[in-house]
Amino acid sequence: MLNHKLQQKLLQKLTPQQIQMIKLLEVPTFQIEERIKKELEENPALEEGADDERTDDEDIAEDEHIENEKDTDSEEFTFDDYVDEDEIPEYRLQMRNSSKDDERKIDIPVSAGYSFHEHLASQFGFRELTEKQKVIGEYIIGNIDEDGYLRRELASIVDDLAFLQNIEITEKELEETLQIVQDLEPAGVGARTLRESLLLQIRKKDKSQPATKLAYIILKSCFEDFSKRHYDKIIERLNVPENELKAAIDEILKLNPKPGGMYSEPLNKSSQTIIPDFILELTEDGFELNLNSRNLPELKLSPSYNNMLSSYAKEKNQRKEMKDAIVFVRQKIESAKYFIDAVRQRQHTLLLTMNAILEYQNEYFIDGDESKLKPMILKNVSEMTGLDISTVSRVASNKFIQTHFGIFPLKYFFSEGLQTDTGEEVSTREIKRLLKDCVDNEQKRTPLNDDQLTEMLKEKGFQIARRTVAKYREHLNIPVARLRKEI
């Protein structure tokens, strides 16, 4: 049974301008230029240049100039060009004044080099193999991951070759071909475990050296104790002095745990340069904060589109094509206005937020002393600026500021707070710095565990729980005490 009823709702929806501003707010400086260029290409009603304020006489003079040029052979966009665009003969759209020399200037794609798998396949192709071994080896290489490991079970590969390649082999035959693949460069490739990869690498070293020979024995017989850093057990089991064990461990640490890692990134990928969004200078009169907009073009509405809209909107007896053109032009002009306003609003919001951060962390920005960095969260900046917390978060995301003591991400200045015994509120960043100092100055033979680190921080006046110390240690990428042990 269907019931009809009237219902009144109050909904809040974002306008297109608000949506566009939110998207632009997240874009950092090194991408905003591309975003503006894209908009300039897609919207003919948007142009580069300052929107100059002109007098009425100048506007009248320009209108007369445009009227005089209507009958001339100019490149200005007119309504007739728009309406008759599809009626231009094809021969008028082709250029036939190029020479044979020009035709040779074709963009030739340049090879970026070998990928990791191509590098292995190239070496494998030079080996003396049967046709069956070639197919098996190529399939093995295709299953090696970007780190250089073969993480699939041999039984699964045997089944795949039977179903997909119609090749019947045993695991022993597959193992023989795998050994050929494992002999390729880089050393350690094709291993199924970390231990096997390290063994493959150490085998290619000169075993006449005592340290290399002992390193091979450790990996072969004492790998579990080595991975858990139970060095005392290794000394007792192998009956070797401590200095020889240290030399052997140094040899192991020189090995590459990810032999395929050097090929995992594209060869033509260059490291990204950080372009700061803000530039902060300390002068005699105080701080001077500016947006880094040196490469951003100024935007304005196209005068020709404005004139064309006003000209044809006045005409009576408009054809359907003319009405469609007017709708098209009006949409482009409105879109251009929205975009210009969104860019201006973005700049205003960025400066408003950064000025609030600068005011809150004023002492820190004078000399960059990390101990002067106050606890600050998004809510603090939101209350100072009147902006929503989500807006502040978008501003802080992927933005950088250049100061006289370095370039920092905006998120660097945000941290939670913790009170000391004296009631002073200290940034958690300061606690992490003290924690790192404690670990750096510990005895590596007997590293400090989380309980000991907690006691040391409490002695410094920080009442902090052990689980919090463990969390901060993980944030600093510091392993547990057992894995920090050295001899």
Description:
- The protein folds into four domains: 115-190, RNA polymerase sigma-54 factor, core-binding domain (Arc Repressor Mutant, subunit A); 193-258; 278-413, no CATH class; 417-484, Arc Repressor Mutant, subunit A (Orthogonal Bundle), CATH 1.10.10.60.
- The chain is built from 22 helices and eight strands.
- Strand 5 and strand 6 form a beta hairpin.
- The strands form three sheets. Strands 3-2-5-6 form a four-stranded mixed beta sheet, with helices on one face.
- The chain has 487 residues and is α+β, with helices and mostly antiparallel strands.
- The protein is 51% helix and 7% strand.
- The longest helix is centred in the last third of the chain and has 41 residues, at 320-360.
- It is extended, with a radius of gyration of 34 Å.
Write a short abstract of this structure.
This protein is of the alpha+beta class. The chain contains 22 helices and 8 strands. The strands form 3 sheets. It has a 4-stranded mixed beta sheet, with helices on one face. Strands 1-4 form a two-stranded antiparallel ribbon. It has a two-stranded antiparallel sheet with strand order 7-8.
